[in-house]
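Side project, low priority. Logging it here so it doesn't get lost.
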Amino acid sequence: MRQRDLGRRLTTGGRGLVAACLAVASHFVSAEARAQSKAVVPSLTTERMVLERVCTTSPLRARASAVREEGVAGAKAAAVLPNPSVLVEHNRSFTGSEDTETISGIEFPLGIGGRRFLLADAAEQRVAQKKAEAEAILIDGALDAREALIAAVAESNRSALMTAQHDTLIGIAATIAGAQKSPSRSQHDLLRQTVEVELHATTLSLQNAKTAAANAGLAAFVDRPVDLATIQLSTMAEDGSKRSFATHPRILAFDASIRASDLEVDAANRRWVPDLDLFFGYREVTAFIAPDELQVGRGLTFRVGLPITFFDHGQGEAAIAAAQRSSTRAEREIFAATKRSEVKAANDVLTELTHVPAGVDTVALAKKLFEQDKDLYAAGEGSIEDLLEAAGLVESTALARIDAEEARANARVAKMRALGTLSNPELEAICAAGAK
């Protein structure tokens, strides 16, 4: 009995050991597979790569394709011919002579007013409208991604700058220790430096939170990591296009919609010309010409139906189409006026920002001032307040440069949005292809 129990325990323990080994092996295999899968995903290293990714793989492409398919579906629906009708008619008399008549055939609707061709042309204009709207969706999405990328790069630069500044503030402790100061003065200065470091640590934490939020906002547009360190904020959103305001995709969509409404009004007014109903069929008549003599007659039947357009001759449909046309024209004028003001505002901002110095000389001067105050403090001639203030000036001037670069980039994006362009014909062609 004891041997059987011992054997059972050994068997159970062996199974548990094998299972544990398999679990550990599968864990390492899966971990290695995950590491390999992460390693093969390349990072996006340029602004153009990010925008191409948005136009070709983002969910906005599916939305743009769906909008375009709406117009294509409308054109297909307008090209469909009306269905014919099969008619069967049987007549029989119950009094007098027992005569019968059977008629069977097909009835075809025939439009002679040209409405079908006008509506087909209107549907083609709707296709152009939806195509322009699809392009506008991708361009707007790419510009949104551009703004998110600008924010992510700017916040990342601020975090890197403030991290380096934090290390500088910590390093001031060594300057205090080697300065020619009395012990009490050194303790006071060291306490002042510690307070400044702790305060700056809080500010740095807040900045890192902003950077994380900006990176999360950028991740909503692309499904790959972006190497922000390789993207220069000063060269982002460069305006190299001479695109006219009249070629804005939304303006093109409005114009196509107005042309479609014109054709729909003409088609509605053509309803005063009635559509004919043509019937072709077979006719068979039986009649008793004598009590015991039945005669059968066979032949063809042709009938034309002509509705009288006295009450309804398309006036209601024409009024609705005309009202839609007027509404679209008003929306176009409002949109055009808004975009003109946005273009002017963006140009004014860019003009004002051209007077803002690039900041390189200012930062260099601030660094020079900091080094001088550092030497003066080490020699016992300067104060800790002057030294910390000089360190803060280095950070402030560098942050001001980042703010100016970000403002210029955002102003260029605002101008692109008002003109409906990416300022790069190749990128616009990629976005237009993504809408198909």
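Brief comment: The first strand starts at residue 85 and ends at 92.
Revisit when time allows.
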